[in-house]
Design brief:
The protein is built from 15 helices and three strands. The protein has helices at 29-38, 63-78, 83-93, 97-111, 116-121, 129-141, 144-198, 207-243, 245-257, 261-282, 287-297, 301-315, 320-327, 332-344, 347-402; strands at residues 6-13, 19-26, 42-48. A hairpin with a 5-residue loop joins β1 (6-13) and β2. The protein is flat, with a radius of gyration of 30 Å.
C-alpha cells in the first residue's frame, strides 16, 4: 500500500553555499532528499512539518470539493501555470487536510512519471471512470486545457442538480421529523399531566381524549421498543441499499412513480444523461464507450439499465435515437434532438441544449413543489398539534357545559 503524502520542512545550502529553506510534499524523506539534490541543494535538515495547534482538520472529501478542484485546475491551466505547480498551489491552499493530501499525492505521482489520467486513476473513490476517460482523451488529443474546462462545467452542473433534488426532499423530511419529535414529547410528557387532572373529574372522558391517553400510555411503556424498531429499520434500509441491487432497482422504480417527486427524478435523470453524453461526445469519446459511463451518471438504476441496453443496441449498429425510443423513458423532444444531432454531427451541442432545458425544468419543479408543500405541511402540523390540544381540553369544555 502506498504511503500517504506528507509535508516536509527542509534546510540546506545551494551551489553557492548560501543557506536556504522551504517545504516539499512527498511520500518519504528519501524522495525529498533526492528532489533537493536534483535542484542542486545539499540538504542539512529534513523533518515532517508539524500540524498547527488549531488546524481546520481532516474532513471527508465530498463531490463539491472535486468540482471546485476541477475548476481551479482548469483556470490555472488556462493561465499557463505548469501542471505540477498548479497541483502544488491548489494542494497547499486547501483548508481540508484530506483534500490537501489527495491533491499533493496526485502531484507526487505526476512527478514520478505518471500522466494526469494515470495519477487520477489511482484514486477511483474520488475520480470516476468518466472523469479519468475525459482527462485521458484530452491528453491524447493535446486539448487537456479545453477538456478540463468541460469537466469543471460538468461537475458544477451535476452538483447543482444534486443540490436542487436534495432541496426538494430535505425540507418536507425535516418538517415531518420535527413533527414526530414534537408529537412524541407532547404524548410522553404533557398528556400524562392532563391524565392526572382528569382522574379527579369522576366522569367519563370523551372517546377522542381516551384514544390520545391510550396512545400516550403505549408510548410511555414501549418507547424503547419503538425506538429500537425505527433504528433497526433505518440500518436495515441502509444496508439493503448498499448490498442489494434488486432492492435499489425496486426503490428507484417506486421513486419514479411518486407524484411530484417522480417527475423531478425523471427530469434530473434525463438532464444527467444529456449532460454526461454531451461532455463525452465533445471530447471525442466513441459513443459505445461513452454510454458505459453515462449509465452510471444518470443517478437512477432504471435509467442506468436502459442506457446499458441502448449501448448494446448501438454496438450492433442501431441508431441511438431508435434505441432511446424503445426504452420508453425519454420524452419525444429529447429523442428528436438526438436524432437531429446524429444526422447533423452536432450531438454534443444538441445534448447540451437538452441538459440546459431539463436542469431548468428541475429547478422550476423544485420551486413549485416547495410552494405547494409548505402550506400542506403547515396544515398537517396544525392538525396534529391542534388535535392533541383539543383532545386534552375536551373534558374541561364538557365539565364547563355541565356546570
Amino acid at each position: 500500500m502506498a504511503q500517504e503524502v506528507t509535508m516536509f520542512v527542509w534546510e540546506g545550502t545551494d551551489r553557492n553555499g548560501a543557506r536556504s529553506k522551504g517545504e516539499l510534499s512527498s511520500r518519504s524523506e528519501s524522495t525529498v532528499r533526492a528532489e533537493l539534490r536534483r535542484q542542486g541543494i545539499k540538504p542539512i535538515k529534513i523533518k515532517k512539518k508539524p500540524k498547527p495547534l488549531f488546524a481546520t482538520g481532516k474532513r471527508k472529501i465530498i463531490p463539491k470539493d472535486i468540482a471546485v478542484f476541477s475548476r481551479q485546475l482548469a483556470t490555472m491551466m488556462s493561465a499557463g501555470v505548469p501542471l505540477v505547480q498548479a497541483f502544488e498551489i491548489i494542494g497547499r491552499g486547501h483548508e481540508n487536510l484530506g483534500m490537501q493530501e489527495l491533491v499533493l499525492g496526485i502531484k507526487s505521482d505526476i512527478e514520478g512519471g505518471d500522466t494526469l489520467a494515470e495519477a487520477l486513476e489511482r484514486h477511483p473513490l474520488y475520480f470516476d471512470e468518466l472523469f479519468c476517460n475525459l482527462v485521458h482523451a484530452g491528453e491524447q488529443a493535446g486539448v487537456l486545457e479545453t477538456l478540463l474546462h468541460k469537466i469543471a462545467q460538468y461537475k458544477e452542473k451535476t452538483e447543482s442538480l444534486k443540490a436542487k433534488i436534495k432541496k426538494a426532499l430535505t425540507y418536507p423530511t425535516a418538517v415531518l421529523v420535527v413533527a414526530c419529535i414534537v408529537t412524541s414529547i407532547l404524548l410522553i410528557f404533557v398528556v400524562p399531566t392532563f391524565e392526572e387532572l382528569f382522574q379527579g373529574f369522576g366522569a367519563d372522558l370523551p372517546a377522542f381524549t381516551k384514544m390520545v391517553i391510550d396512545l400516550s400510555r403505549f408510548l410511555q411503556d414501549s418507547w424503547y421498543v419503538i425506538l429500537g424498531i425505527l433504528v433497526g429499520i433505518f440500518f436495515g434500509f441502509r444496508e439493503a441499499m448498499r448490498r442489494s441491487r434488486k432492492f435499489n432497482h425496486f426503490l428507484h422504480k417506486v421513486l419514479l412513480k411518486i407524484p411530484a417527486i417522480g417527475a423531478i427524478v425523471h427530469k434530473a435523470s434525463i438532464a444527467r444523461f444529456a449532460r454526461t453524453l454531451s461532455t463525452m461526445s465533445a471530447a471525442g469519446v466513441p459513443l459505445v464507450e461513452a454510454l458505459s459511463s453515462v449509465a452510471g451518471a444518470t443517478g437512477n438504476i432504471v435509467y442506468g439499465d436502459a442506457v446499458m441496453k441502448m449501448r448494446e443496441d448501438v454496438a450492433t449498429g442501431q441508431q441511438l435515437q431508435a434505441s432511446m425510443r424503445q426504452a420508453n423513458l425519454f420524452p419525444n423532444m429529447v429523442i428528436q434532438m438526438v436524432a437531429i444531432g446524429e444526422e447533423s454531427g452536432s450531438m454534443d451541442s444538441m445534448l447540451e441544449k437538452v441538459a440546459d432545458f431539463f436542469e431548468e425544468e428541475v429547478d422550476n419543479a423544485v420551486d413549485n413543489m416547495s410552494s405547494l408543500l409548505e402550506p400542506m405541511i403547515m396544515a398537517f402540523l396544525g392538525i396534529v398539534v391542534g388535535g392533541l390540544v383539543v383532545a386534552m381540553y375536551l373534558p374541561i369544555f364538557k365539565l364547563g357545559s355541565v356546570v
